[in-house]
């Protein structure tokens, strides 16, 4: 968080507002106060001058009237000296000059001692002429040009009339120049004192304002610091509560908020950890994206399923990570209802994943992201494929004998039954086909029992050489081909714990295969050896052999190297599949080695003991 500069801080703003308010208030008070003071001081001054002027006016009139009466009789005193005496009597400090002017505008007397020369001259003051002509008091404030610096003076001119009333006659005028500057000086003195008072009180209020603003801004800046600490994940800090006012309440609420935030943060953290452990411990791969399809979360199983690393997948588009960017856009994946198979199979091994998509959506329908769940379905796909293949094989194997039988039976029904030469042959064929089908169905039943572990093995101890010799003898007696049997059996007795019937079936199948594929005059070798604590049985022929790439597959169900040839020899391809199940149930292993045109050798192993006592002793 950035630092608040001093001049932008609330503290300064508060103090500024406070000071400005006080300054404005004092200004208004000051203006009002000085106006009132001016009016009142000026009024008082002017009243006192006017009062004195009235007295002077009265005395002068009396003096003038007396003079006019005396002009008729003879008198010793001049009127001017009488007026002079009056003026001397009335002249005071605050009056600069009093002048008396007669009706012909001639100056009769002046109180100004230094300027007596003007007596007898004409007055050229406009204000005096106006006062005489309108017979009313005239006044104005003028600047006295004789003083330095120039001072303000209040100039008054009043007419002197013989009587008081409408028909009075103007005798002259009186002119007074009073020193009003003193009033203004007094006023500015008071204003100075006032201004000084304002300055002092302002200084005090600024200091007080700073202190008061501090009480508000300190808790606020404290809370600011705490908010900064909280944003960095530090919840241990607490705001100091200074009082119970609104800011104090705010501080309490702030501390409460801190606690709640801490609690909810730890809950979120716990939830996050839980989610992370669920995601990493589940076997399915989970991938989450943001709303643009970029991967934001991917768990370990997903990484191992995709054979990828977290660094190379995070922030990449999901479609390209899943290898779907050619077929689908992110929009398509959002609207994908079914799962999608991802085929990563190579020529060596199949590898198929299934991806299910679900959209993270708000109630408003706004898409927030996509969750993808991955499963490895390689095994399942393989089983499904095997099952489909198996059903196809079974149907095919059954259809062939059935169609053969149908055509023979149709021929018989069409009248062939009457022909004594053909009928038995036809019937014989249907019988053979039926037996083949029965064999097939029995084989299938046996395999299915093995698959569902429903069979039981009747174990018994047999001496293997004797058992083997017995089986070889049986084949030697009934063999239809000119094939030599070579027995490479050891002297030692080996005892095996086996189900003799089942093992006979296995060996019958291996030996009959060898006979089937051996040419006339070939050899079949039978051997028994011991390898790695196991008895290893070998049946080897000089037959046509099996191509290298197919050797491993002859133990698969229904597998025949050359279908047409094998079927003509009566095989369905289940014999070795049953043999493998049986040998493995006995704890052994079966495999074949072959070379085309040279011969085939089938091996199988069995656990053995050297004496036949078994468990009894
Ligand atoms: P079934 O045994 O069910 O009557 P089958 O003999 O054809 O039929 P398997 O015994 O399972 O079936 O053998 C599978 C295939 O392996 C045979 O069809 C044959 O092509 C091949 N095969 C088995 N043994 C030999 C062998 N000794 N020489 C050459 N090919 C063989
Ligand atoms: Mg066979």
Describe the protein's architecture and organization.
Helix 4 (181-231) runs parallel beside helix 5. The chain has five domains: 10-187, PAS domain (Beta-Lactamase, 2-Layer Sandwich), CATH 3.30.450; 233-281, no CATH class; 285-376, PAS domain (Beta-Lactamase, 2-Layer Sandwich); 382-451, Helix Hairpins (Orthogonal Bundle); 460-616, Heat Shock Protein 90 (2-Layer Sandwich), CATH 3.30.565. A hairpin with an 8-residue loop joins strand 8 (340-343) and strand 9 (352-361). The chain has helices spanning 10-72, 79-90, 126-134, 181-231, 246-281, 300-306, 310-313, 318-321, 330-334, 378-413, 422-451, 464-478, 500-517, 563-568, 575-585, and strands at 95-102, 107-110, 138-144, 151-161, 170-178, 285-289, 295-298, 340-343, 352-361, 367-376, 460-463, 484-488, 495-498, 523-531, 534-541, 590-595, 599-607. It is 50% helix and 19% strand. The chain has 15 helices and 17 strands. A five-stranded antiparallel sheet has the order 2-1-5-4-3, sandwiched between helices. The protein has 617 residues and is α+β, with helices and mostly antiparallel strands. The site of magnesium ion (MG) has 5 residues, from helix 13.
In short:
The chain is of the alpha+beta class and 617 residues long. 50% of the residues lie in helices and 19% in strands.
